[in-house]
Protein 1
Amino acid sequence: MKTLFIVASVMAVLFLAVPNKVEAQKRNATKTTEAHSQKAAKAPKIHDFKITNIKIIPFDSQTGEFQEEIKPNDKRSFFNAFYISLFVVVEISGQTASSVGPEDFNLERKVEITVIGDQRQIAKKIVDINHVDLTLGSGKFFVPVWLYPLMCSDVKINARITGQETVSTMKRTVPFFCGE
């Protein structure tokens, strides 16, 4: 009988203690979630980079001279221009050194430039970019690509920045034609 009384007492203690422990765990979980939410709300904003321009400059390999830049609304096209190369410069803008924090240095940002011409990929360049590139100067970084001659259809230049919260993209097209 004494054993039965001890077992019953232990069961009563466990029965009363376990629900309190579960409630305590729920309370702690709620407090932890609230603390994480407050930390997330106070977390500093990571500054996204943006592609701000794609500069396209034709190069005449017969004269050895650069021509005038092809602006975004330029109607110029090239017909049987087997001697024209294109010098493409992608401009990336971001925050300068005075406005960035340590969280900005932990991302793995890349700029990817893909060029399609004659229904195939004629160039692809992927460059790791980081705030060191932008903070040393004016908040801008430039990625060049050289496109060699013999283009006979529209040249489509696509640039994008990945590895950050917002993907930045820009596209440009230069008309090339070949025929008799």
Note: Residues 2-42 form the longest helix (41 residues).
Protein 2
Amino acid sequence: MAYRENIGELIWKDFHETLKDRVSKAFFILPEGYTLFRKAVESFDVGATEGAVLLCRATIESAFLLFLSIQWHSESSFNIVFPTTELTFKDLRDAVRKRVRFSEKELTAIDRIREDGNFVAHFASRMIKQRNSRVERFQKWESNKNNVTDADRIKAVNKLLKSEKSLVTRVDALQDLRDTASILLTLGKAAGLPVV
């Protein structure tokens, strides 16, 4: 299902407009992140909300790893270094934070984008855990009640369902796209700064 509003495309254009003459440098420095972000906005525009969220998470992780693999000496002088061990997301995030001045909003967004992506990536296992937890909470609720009617049970179940996170929404995905663009721009601005 295609959406008439190509909001993802607008985000992509704004991203490019902000980069201006640095587009080729951004692509050179963070090629996988740049490409994954393009796929995220395309996914969003065709209604693949969960795909957009997963691709935002992949964009951030890829961009962080690529950013950390470059040690800048000046705007045009750098060395490529590759990690010798596999890094967790937390390792990547913490190492990038030492070299890049993210806003508080971006720092919060980094963790949210990861969490949204993880939610989608591990949806089935989370749903099973959520279902088991729901049954336990319902049984606990029911054991504390006397003379419970079917209407009371339905209300209790609906209340439990409303308290659970379902799939990510289009609004969640849109926020992830906007924040991913902001994070990539901040990384791009930090590129070329000597590593201290």
Note: The chain has one domain: 7-121+168-190.
